[in-house]
Amino acid sequence: MLLSILFFFVPTCVIHSQVAKSIHVEEYDKHRYQDKPVSKSQSKYKIDLRNTLNSNSLDKKFVGFHAYWAGEKYLNYRYDLISDLIYFGFEIDSESGSIVNSRNYLTHPINDICKSTNTKLHVSIILFGSTQIKSFLNDTAKISYFIDNLDYYNKENSFDGINIDFETLPSECSNQFVYFVQQLDTSFPSKEISIDIPAVDWNSSYSFEKLNPICDFYFLMGYDYYWSGSDNAGPVSPLRGGNINIEYSLNRYESNLIDLEKIILGLPWYGRGWEVSDSSFQSKVTGGSEALTYDYIKSNFSSANYSQKYDSNYLSYLDKEKWNEIWYDDSLAFSTKVIYALSRELAGVGVWALHYQNDNNQLWGAVEHSFKEVSVKELERKNEGIVEYYDLQGRKVYNIEDSSGKFILKILKVAGKIKSADGIYLERK
What we know:
By secondary structure, the protein is an alpha/beta fold. The chain has 13 helices and 19 strands. The strands form three sheets. It has an eight-stranded parallel barrel with strand order 1-2-4-5-6-7-8-14, surrounded by four helices. Strands 10-9-13-12-11 form a five-stranded antiparallel β-sheet. Helix 6 packs parallel to helix 7 and helix 11 (about 330-345) runs parallel beside helix 12 (about 360-370). The radius of gyration is 22 Å and the shape is globular.
């Protein structure tokens, strides 16, 4: 009876996210056969190496996924801000244990860039589907063969870490998964081991007491709370609000004996749009849904509403007489969650995926300033020029510039707190 009641009150948005495709799987399926070599000579992007790695004043990680279908957008990344880059990904053949596709890892220029910028490079090991995961984990010979394959790639072009992205892990394979991670740790003792974990581990598939001594960090996928199969439109990555959110996820994992200092809070640089019944807040879904990159949203929509309930953005629009609702995180929502992660003393923050920002670089600014301990009063004491203006939502904004006119940051005062026009907290008192 109690179990039935508990199940009834779990929001469908999160239940579905455990049995349906995550954004990793959804995008992997969409780009599965896109495997073209990358040529820098044809690139329109210019690599930005303006600073050295870890220019932030906090000893925290910023981890980003580089998806193999990103093309040459990797040249647009802020490597001065990325502590760890995860190359997505190496595909396992569950029948043999071999690596069937490394997505041009050995020849990709990103290897040399990471080495030259002192950015740690991790390879993501991907295996999706409970049947495939069972087939692989239940055969120690397959695990040994896979490790031999992986060792070849490391010898040819060494990496710094191994990221494990198995979705969804059956609970009956919990011990076999621990064995697999142990074998990786034994075979690659100098490499960092990280594991991608869902927003909520409903089935208790991970034996954290056994994994904690082996795993260097967990990448908590703090997204897909609302997904393509949700009954109503809603935030992809709610900080608070509703029954299930980022705060709930962290509290639940902490109660399951994960040290929060081992968790990277993964945040979305994408949003999601639904065809809905009307323009009301969190309208009922009536049609299809699509994941939308931050770059696409910012390039096609000039403004959005900010939900203080969820700390996320939303907008509605008519398309061919049908209402659509989009939820995504702008730099205000993103940096609010970064500051929250830092306040919980997590290992850091991560994103899926780095190329989704493209030329709309507001989120890079949020990363840069959110990781720095900046005091507005200290800036004011420097007698820097202040120019007053308003943003698209009509909010009064201050643009602080140095004597050369170089942009430093934008400041917005709201309800006793100070935030930038892009939403970056600068003073929390």
